[in-house]
Amino acid sequence: MKPARLATATAVALATAGGLLHTAAAPASATTGCASPVYTRAFYTGTAFSGSPKKKDCDSSIAENWGTGAPAAGLPKDNFGVRWTVTRDFGSGGPFSLPVAAQDGVRVYLDGVRKIDVWKNVSATVKKTADITIPAGRHTLRVDYVNWTGAANIKFAYTPRTSSTVDKVRPLTPTAASVTYDPKSSKAKLTWARNPEMDLAGYRVYVRAKGHDDWHLTSGGTLTTTSFTNALPPNGASSYYEVRAVDKAGNESGGTHDLPVTTADRTAPDVPVLTATDDDYSGVLVAWDDAWEPGARYDVFRASSATGEFVRIRTLNGVSSIGDETAPYGETSYYRVVATDAAGNTSRSAVLAHTRRLPVPYLLDAGTNADESGVELRWTMPLRAETQYRVYRREASGDNAAEVRIDCEPSRVGPADDPIATYACTDRSAVPETAYWYRVTSVGAGGQESKSSQVQQGGLYDRTPPPPVTGLTSTATEYGTDLEWEASPAPDVAEYDVFRAPADHPTEDENIARLAPGTTRFTDLDVPDGENWVYYVAGTDTSSNTLWETSPRQVARTEAHELDLTPAATLPDTAGLTLSARTDGTGHAALSWTARTAGAATATGFHVYRWDRAAGQYVRLTDVPLGADAHGYTDAATPAGTTGYYVVSVVAPDGTEAFSGLAPVVVPPSGA
Q: What's the average model confidence in pLDDT over 451-455?
């Protein structure tokens, strides 16, 4: 017979917590209970488990063989009972196996619910296994064993089933996770509480970079400890860690809350790699785009020689280029950039030499100056381009034409705050009425010369328009408006331009005539229908100068109110004809019409009528209808010096007539 184990202050039992072995001391006194997962064992006289137990102690496992003897001093060898109980945390729970072997009776309960029942007096050991699912959390197992007669033995265990085909329950997420960071060693240490799972295989630590969603398993793999130390590069990067538990079936828990770590930054910024290009208006563009680092400060230095003193010319934050407008033209400057990050780490670029090219003038024009004493040249330059200039001229357009450098002292013109400087000089050696081709270059302090501007043609030409026309009058007539003016005293007048605009919109003008230089009269053959007009007459000289372009307010003008000769009576436009009228080469009114409707197309003939203003009626000009195929008519008796109005009628088979709309014809007097 095997005696019961007694709990003492020094007894140590192996306990299974989280599937990983650790030591647990049994309690010093049976009266204080037994620390989970150690069983509390109670011995009873009899098999009914009634009354107070004869003895209580702690038992780390159920594996007893008492044979035919008593289980403990003071108990009988037959008809006794032993009860084991344990309450423990099963973590996330899952599938468990409950194997039992006993002689005689045994019953196993989970939270008071019977799971195994082998309750009979037997003469040999009986075995039975129950597979159950234990829910997550704390639960109580109870094992009742009785011996009626004969030998007494019992063996019981509860073990997780770890096959991946059976266990689909994820472990609980680890708790009490925290992280500390040592900036001296640049190591992050993570710790967490032990997981209560019985089938735990270990822990995994994952990491992701700030701003990213993907988690990556750290180099630690699957850990059996509750801490992990990770060495990190001291580059100021921010990361997040989380811890997950994994069981023997391969199920992985959810992750702990994110554990942030930002390392100390002892990594220097990338070394700026410099490039330099010229820009006429931004200066020397020094850039280091490939090495740009957000948040870094860049100090830009410049020296006049590779070994000279470097002077800081600009401090920039978070940008990767500058325009050095102060770099001297035509000279070599030496640049260096020092990058400093937020942690104070620095790196410096190699020295870059760059010779700023001289700016190329942009030649705007070349034309006669205000007093017509020379050819004025104008060109633009960057505002800070303080250089000398050279002006070249040739008399032919070919590239091989002889070219001379002319004396032309430039001066700054235009607003002082204009970001683009404009310069001008006058070629007073130009011969009048001669075409030249000009170009300009800029010159550095050492005499070096820039590329050439584009070539502009110019010359010493007449830029004075003829004076305003005088004596301009207008007269309303039955055939339009007569304009008369005095001949211009300017000897080089090439033509007169006549413009017309509605009186209520005098700027909406149109050019209605261009007349020979000796002309002093013009008739606007507009249909006199009561319109109000403004007329302008301006002279243009042989050099195309005109006040209409340079000083339109000085141009002669006159206002005219047309006569209104519109017939007092109108006929309904029902004939379905489109009628038009004009004067032919003999001064007669020539009418033409086309059918607009089917009714007009089936006419038996046409009559032509002219408005008689004196009689106040339409007079028929055709004695008999024109043929049905007629499409035109000429009025041999067209009145001259007036405006005639015509209608055409469609003659139906029954003799009735339908009339077209009016068609006016302006017929000036003979010689007008």
A: 93
Its pTM stands at: 0.48
Q: Alpha-carbon distance 523 to 588, whole Å?
A: 18
The per-residue DSSP string of 537-588 comes to EEEEETT--BHHHH-GGGSEEEEEE--B---SS---B-S-EEEEEEE-TTS-
| Start-to-end Cα distance in the chain | 155
Secondary structure of residue 598 in the 3-state scheme: helix
Q: Which residues pair with 500 in a beta bridge?
A: 510, 535
Helix (H) or strand (E) holding 368: strand 362-368
Query: What's the number of CA atoms in the CB half-sphere (13 Å) around residue 574?
Result: 8
- Structure token pair of residue 45: 């006289």
Q: What is the rounded average pLDDT of the residues 567-590?
A: 92
Query: Is the distance from CB of 80 to CB of 68 less than 8 angstroms?
Result: no
**Cα(228)–Cα(237) distance, rounded to whole angstroms?**
19
What is the 8-class DSSP label of residue 163? Answer: -
> pLDDT (tens digit, 9 = 90+) per residue, 75-89?
999 999 999 999 999
Burial of 174 per CB tally in 10 Å (0-12, 13-18, 19+): buried
pLDDT in tens, 581-614: 999 988 899 999 998 887 677 789 999 999 999 9
Q: What is the DSSP string of 386-406?
A: --EEEEEEESSSSTTS-EEEE
Dist. CA 172–CA 135, nearest whole Å = 12
Which residues are CB-contacts of 213 (< 8 A; sequence separation ≥ 6)? none
Question: Residue-wise over 609-628: b if at least 16 C-beta within 10 A, else e?
Answer: bbbebeeeebeebbeebbee
- How many whole angstroms separate alpha carbon 377 and alpha carbon 458? 9
Phi, psi at residue 601, to the nearest 5°?
-70, -25
| Greatest CA separation for the chain | 162
Q: What angle do CA 152, 156, 162 make, to 5 degrees?
A: 160
**CB 189, CB 179: distance < 8 Å:** yes
Give the distance from CA 443 to its chain's centroid: 44
Lateral strand order in the sheet of 362-368? 362-368, 375-382, 420-427, 411-413
Which tokens go with 497?
Answer: 């331009």
Q: What domains can you pick out in the chain, each with its CATH number?
A: 12-160 (2.60.120.260), 178-262 (2.60.40.10), 275-355 (2.60.40.10), 362-459 (2.60.40.10), 473-561 (2.60.40.10), 577-667 (2.60.40.10)
